[in-house]
Each structure stands twice: as C-alpha cells, then as structure tokens.
Amino acid sequence: MKNIVVIGLGGIGGYFGFKINRENKKENHIEFVARNDTYKKVEENGLTLLSPEFNDTVTIPDSVYQNISEIQNPDLILICVKDYDLENVCNQLATVITPKTVILPMLNGVNIYERIRTIIPDNIILPSCIYISSYIKEKGVVEQIGKPGKIIFGKDPEHFSSDISFVTELFKKSNINFDFKDDPFIDIWTKFLFVASFALVTSKYNSNFGTALSNKIQRNKLNGIMKEIKTVTLAKGIALPEDIIEKTIKIAYSIPYEATTSLQLDLNIRKGNNELELFAGAILKYADELNIKVPFTKKIHDDIYNLKSARVFVTKSLNDC
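-> structure tokens emitted (321 positions)
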C-alpha cells in the first residue's frame, strides 16, 4: 500500500485527486491537503467533481489535512498549487518527505523542475505539463468541462534509471489520460510557448483569444513572444518542431473566441499574486543566462508589472486551455 498525497484542491488537484481517490482507495492510502474553507468543506462533505466523466460526484479521502506538517511517510506527492506558492510548499515538504518520496508537480511552467530541485535536491522529481479545462466552482467543488484532463510527464534527468512504475500504474488504475516519456521537456516547452504567449498578450490588452489572433498589433506581439521563446529553447538544446509557431496558432483558432487566461483574470480582480513571473519572468531569466535579447517579452512584462488599476471587466478564465 502506497501513501499518496495531493496538495491543493483547485482545478487541477481537485480533478486528478478525485480520480485517484475514487479508483484507488482500497489499494492505497489517499490524503488531501487544502487550506481554510476548502479544507473545512472537504473534511465535512468530501471532494466534489462536476464532470462529464462521472455520474457520482463526491469522493471521501482517507485523510484531509490543513497543514503539510501533518503528512507522514509519503510515497508520492502531487503538488497542485499555483506557482507563486511553490517555494513555500517545497520548504514545508522538505521537513516531511523521506528519501523514497517521489514528487510530481502538476503545474504548467518550464522552470518548475529546477525550482523544486533547488529546495529538494535528492528526491525523484517528475517533470510534467497538464492539459485540462477546470476551475473551482465553490470551495470544495471543482468543475471540469470538455475533454478529459491529461498529464504528460517523464523521468527525472537526475534519477533516470529509477523505477517509478507505481506512479504509471496508479494513473492507469485511476483512468487518467497520460503520456509517460523519457524526455518530457519538449512537451513542457511546447505547452509553455502556447500558454505564455497568449497569457501575456491577453493580459496586456485585456482582450481574449479571438482578438489576440485577429488584431494586427496583438498578433504581432504573439508572434514576437513565440519567436523569442523558440530562440531560448534552441539555445538550451531543446528541439521544438520547426513549425511550432504555425502549429500553435492553428491550435489557438480552435479555442473559443471569447476565452481568456488565468493571468488576465487575476489581474482583473486585483489579485496580489499572479502568474506573470511564471511566464514572462522565466523567459527573461533564461534569456539573461544565455545572453539573448527578448524585447517583446521584456516590454510586455514591464507593462503588466506596472499596471496601476484594475480592469473594467472580469471574464471567465479558461484554465490551461
């Protein structure tokens, strides 16, 4: 029996945590970690997932904790928090993990693996990216729409030969759609190129996917940021497809015209923490290390950072299109 811990019950953690708990409670010990009102709701009523995949909507975990310090002897930890909470969570995890604990970050970002490795230097960390459209409907209730969520993850470059088959078996038994690869970083950067470029442009202009594609100025910014990301990946030795930008634009046309991003939503509601550094900050950091100029990203980062007032409208966010 493995001890599986899901930290964070938002759109991603709520969806994947629900599926893991629903299908594996008899064979594993499943624990959730949530904060404040979410913790109270899940402790009292269980975790609710509204999804086309299920008729039954509630699952009860073996344990629900409010504090990471309550975790004991974890075999697998799924980190499902926002990136701006990552360092805080990892610093707490460093006091409760064992040498055998495997860490699977379920965040979309190109520097997530490195940031965790800095704080937790010895454990197995599985790089990943997530495809899902889901959001918190209310505390303890997550709604997922569209296609089933998917995770692409792979081997830890520093523990390449380690046996982590129990993780893939867990996902199979949970009916989770996943791809496991020796090197997942091409997929991670492919997803990042899409999400980062649209998040930055729609946030800067308070627009949506359709407008970003059709407006000449915004489309120029999109192309500029995508080209800069591609230049960074080439310098890092990550071989994205030659036509990655064309493919990304084609995918974007399949997204609903009015769709926006979580970064834009956070800016609209004046949320103090947001994903600006996850997207633009990561590009700027890598570009500086590689002595690469990224003027489109730098300008849009500074413009968003210096925003002084909230936007006049708030639109529904499409989580990780």
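The CA atoms of residues 31 and 155 lie 24 Å apart.
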